[in-house]
């Protein structure tokens, strides 16, 4: 029984390298994610119709034109390598045009990811204030630390942080959702990744066997000295 539960909790949130995003029936969920990492937006309606609008208040267009977006048989929407330009409102409606679920997503640009190691004294981005008519705070909203990558010996764990903006007395919002109408760009608008050392005891009932795959070997670019490392089926979300 315990084994079954563990399998469920491990396989449900990530489908392979994809992260499954769910939201309660008829609700709107607002969230920040990283560009370049595959996600599935859950909508359990076999004849679901998905609409997308990038501009606030604008009617959504039926989603079929984006090449990296695919509707799965159960109704959910799969976004492969989503781009910052795909920030906006994703609405799932049933065939009578009633809302099933809505996601307002800020795909934050992974190419600007600010990476710091806590134990090397590297500092995350600082809070800043912006003057946009009134004063707003721009800051990093951190997710919880992920699991340590080793047990019984020193390892590392990481956490992701997203750019959020907060008006006094208001609920914080992902930066690009807040700034949707004003096509403004600030250098502080970056997602973050923080690494920290960890040491956890081994707990056999919890150990997760994460297989790895070798698909290809790339030659370093002779001219640029750059190497692009691809890790198929990997995800920064875990
Ligand atoms: C930055 O702002 C956030 C949100 O108000 C707050 O939770 C956090 O403690 C602040 N960080 C610093 C270093 O002041």
UniProtKB/TrEMBL annotation:
UniProt KW Glycoprotein keyword = yes
Leader sequence residues: 1-16
What are the GO cellular component annotations?
membrane
Does the keyword Membrane feature in the UniProt annotation?
Answer: yes
Q: Which UniProt keywords apply?
A: Glycoprotein, Membrane, Signal, Transmembrane, Transmembrane helix
- InterPro entries recorded: FAM187A/B (IPR039311), Ig-like_dom_sf (IPR036179)
The membrane topology noted for this protein in its Swiss-Prot or TrEMBL record is:
Single-pass type I membrane protein
Location relative to the cell: Membrane
User: Its family?
Assistant: Belongs to the FAM187 family.
User: What PANTHER family does the annotation carry?
Assistant: FAM187, PROTEIN FAM187B
Could you identify this protein by its name?
Answer: Protein FAM187B-like
Species this chain originates from: Chrysochloris asiatica
């Amino acid at each position: 029984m315990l084994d079954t539960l563990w399998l469920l909790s491990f396989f449900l949130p990530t489908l392979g390298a994809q992260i499954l995003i769910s939201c309660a029936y008829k609700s709107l969920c607002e969230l920040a994610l990283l560009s370049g990492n595959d996600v599935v937006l859950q909508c359990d309606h076999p004849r679901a119709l998905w609409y997308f609008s990038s501009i606030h208040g604008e009617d959504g267009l039926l989603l079929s034109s984006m090449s990296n977006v695919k509707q799965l048989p159960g109704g959910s929407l799969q976004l492969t390598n989503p781009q910052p330009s795909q920030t906006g409102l994703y609405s799932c409606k049933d065939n009578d045009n009633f809302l099933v679920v809505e996601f307002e997503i800020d795909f934050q640009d992974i190419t600007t990811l600010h990476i710091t190691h806590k134990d090397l004294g590297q500092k995350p981005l600082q809070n800043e204030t912006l003057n946009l008519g009134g004063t707003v705070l721009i800051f990093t909203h951190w997710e919880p630390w992920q699991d340590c990558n080793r047990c019984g010996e020193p390892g590392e764990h990481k956490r992701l942080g997203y750019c959020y903006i907060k008006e006094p007395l208001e609920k914080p919002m992902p930066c690009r959702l807040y700034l949707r109408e004003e096509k403004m760009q600030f250098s502080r608008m970056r997602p973050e990744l923080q690494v920290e050392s960890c040491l956890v005891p081994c707990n056999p009932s919890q150990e997760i066997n994460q297989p790895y795959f070798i698909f290809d070997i790339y030659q370093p670019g002779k001219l640029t000295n750059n190497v692009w490392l691809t890790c198929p089926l990997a995800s920064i979300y875990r």
